[in-house]
Amino acid sequence: MLFNSYEFIFFFLPVTLLGYFLIAKKSVKLSNVWLTLASFFFYGWWNIRFVPILSASILWNFIFGHLIHKSKNKKLVLFIAIAVNIALLGYFKYTDFFIDSINRFAHTDWNLLNIVLPLGISFWTFTQTAYLVDVYRGKTEPCNFLDYVLFVMIFPHLISGPIINHSEMIPQFNEKERHKFNLDNFALGLMFFLFGLFKKVVIADSLAPIVDQYFGGADALSVWGAWIGVFAYTFQLYFDFSGYSEMALGLGKMINIDFPINFDSPYKSKSPIEFWQRWHMTLGSWIRDYLYIPLGGNRKGQVRKMLNLFIAMTLSGFWHGAGLKYIVWGIWHGLLLVVNHSWRYFAKPRNIKIPSFVAKFMTFAAITAGWVIFRGGVKRGLKIMTKMFNIESIFTASVSGNQIFTILILILLSVTVFIMPNVIEVLNGRFKTSKRWILVAVLLTDICILCISRNSVFLYFDF
Amino acid sequence: MKTKKWLIVYILSSIPLLALIAALTIFVDPYFHYHKPHTDLFFYELSNDNERYLNDGITLHFDYDAILTGTSMMENFKSSEFDAAFDCKTIKLPYRGGTLYEINSNQEKAFQNHSVKYIFRSLDYYMLNKESTEKRNHFTYPEYLYNKNLVDDVKYIWNINVLSSIAKSFVKYLKKESGITPFDEYGNWMSEYVFGKKEVLKGRTKFKSPKNFFEFTEQDENRTRNNVQKNIVDIAVAHPETQFYYFLPPYSIAEWGILYENGDLQRRLKEEAITVQLLVGYDNIHLFSFNSKTDWILNLDRYKDSVHYDDKINSEMVKLMREDKYRITKENVDDYLKSETDFFMNFDYNSIF
């Protein structure tokens, strides 16, 4: 199921909330069971075949969490546990990429298996791997079965994160106060959900067909088209992902559970280092704690630090998708971080500073360049970026009325993204149960409900 | 304000606008999901972009006894020309890029509550060798418009695109404009493109000799047979009272050149042969092929790309079909296939430059 669907908003959410708080009056444990079952329903709604796979993964990791804790040879047990997780992820996500790559290099003609990817597998694999490592490190005791299942399954984060840490979550599941319906939390949660929903179904989903059109027709792009396409995608991705994360935050708030923040105005960043502290923040933490640090972090000298950063980012690129373009994107971010750390190492003792505006501009340009590859692939991405700097055609290329309208919207979105406070800052700082906010909520609700169902754009060239 | 009151006021305030929009959608009904259009009050636009949203409603609610359907190969036809030539009342249901399955599914629906005298339909070559239940990828079909389930109509009554259509109708209502896009214009794309040899060839200067040949396998043959049988033949057999006018559209010689260069020519000809042989021999199937109309297919100025011809060709096809010319029958099918194969296999494609 998706948050941006009628069945979620009008059926699943009210029923789940009602059941959760009613049952909690009798038993906290049973209300957690209800929430877990509801989450299974949420997951199985689209394709029930994935439920056994997820269940098996949960069972495996729960058992191995205990085995690691009790074992004399912790490292080996951890290795086995993680290997199976990676194998599962590898099979579902990367098999066809592997076959395709072999076909390309060895000129073979093996058939692709067309394996369907279980929803959210990248997320729940990472979440559970982190748990296993923390048990191994002694940072946590293995938890009981019910808590563990709920920790992995809890529906606000199941499909697209945030990647949650058990030490932040599990204590919350057993606090009695959190199991009492709280009107203020519910109202605030509702506002987070509405803002997130608006960002996704109104802004991101309006940009999507524009991006499809411009990236699809890369060959014939004018300089204006190239800039529109690139900005449209940069914003589509941001509003889509941050919107979904804010919906998750809001849903958590409704059940009095605090989920971690995932986005903090990332396009205001003054450096790539800062970007990864503001974009998909829970992934950034995960990469640091479970990739970068195990590789050695910064404990083995500067050169090794750069290498570890580079490897960690390249791998995380690969996590995003099974394709060369994702690896290239990861490598790009690895390079950016290496350059950024090197610059700091050089500039800080000499007190050299880049003006804030320049730094923000350079960061945004570098990040956006990565997104163009991420979305369009290496060849097409480079083509689009070349067309962005086709200076001559500024004077020869025509701009249509539609394009002017799109440019105005993109300028408006730029103001929102570069200058204005973000949703979290606005709601945490300014929301109160006043008449003005009723108007905001009503407008958001009505507009979102109209935009959840949009006509699909028929892509004629794609037959 | 107290939170409880705030929430209650919020919920109650969200309802009126949504209720109004729902009521408006049901009343105006721009996709004809519930009833015939109120053409005395509003203007209903039939747009090329909305074919898969409009066609089902037209099929269920309009008055007609003939259907003009197919892919972009028929979008420039004029219903009025068919009406005049065949003395019928035609609705036009274009499915650009549509598979045989899509188009057949729509026709089955038509027969449920209409008696249909004629079906006029283009048969596209590149849709023949496909799975018999194949629809288009990368497109989310509005199943909520195709079924009788009222619950999923929420996607129709609260839909920004539908609301936008209603808003346009209201602007016209205020100008006292009402009616509906004539079928002659529905799907028509003549004004959107430039025609001519330059557009067709797009900088190409020659056709290279094919490096590989695509073999027409047993799997290809079974798939084509199954697709054609289920999605073109069966419906004609099920309705002997209806006359089915099927035509193979006249792709330009450039398209055949591309097939030649890609090593796909023989496979295409085999797909056509299977199709044609399955279709001849039925009294109510009238099959036409305009491939031998060389004054069309060799004249690249009449095309906007390698396959799409101008609307005057459409009009001439109506006349020719009425006169039963260029028809493939049981008697001439073997000669037709042989002469067509000879022509396309031996044509010097580089002579067109």
Task: Write a structural description.
Chain A is mainly α and about 475 residues long. Chain A is built from 20 helices and no strands. Chain A has helices at about 5-25, 30-45, 50-70, 75-105, 120-135, 145-155, 155-160, 165-175, 185-215, 225-255, 270-280, 280-295, 300-320, 325-350, 355-375, 380-390, 395, 400-420, 425-430, 435-450. Chain A is globular and about 70 Å long. Chain A starts with 5 loop residues before the first helix and ends in an 11-residue tail after the last helix. The model of chain A has no long low-confidence stretch (mean pLDDT about 90). Chain B is an alpha/beta fold. Chain B has helices at about 5-30, 50-60, 80-85, 100-115, 145, 155, 160-175, 195-200, 220-240, 255-260, 265-280, 295, 310-320, 335-345; strands at about 45, 65-70, 90-95, 120, 180, 245-250, 285-290, 325-330. In chain B, the strands form two sheets. In chain B, strands 3-2-4-6-7-8 form a six-stranded mixed β-sheet, sandwiched between helices. In chain B, strands 1-5 form a two-stranded parallel sheet. In chain B, strand 2, helix 3 and strand 3 form a beta-alpha-beta unit. The longest helix of chain B is centred in the N-terminal third of the chain and has 26 residues, at about 5-30. The radius of gyration of chain B is 23 Å and the shape is elongated. The interface of A and B includes residues 450, 454 and 459 of A.
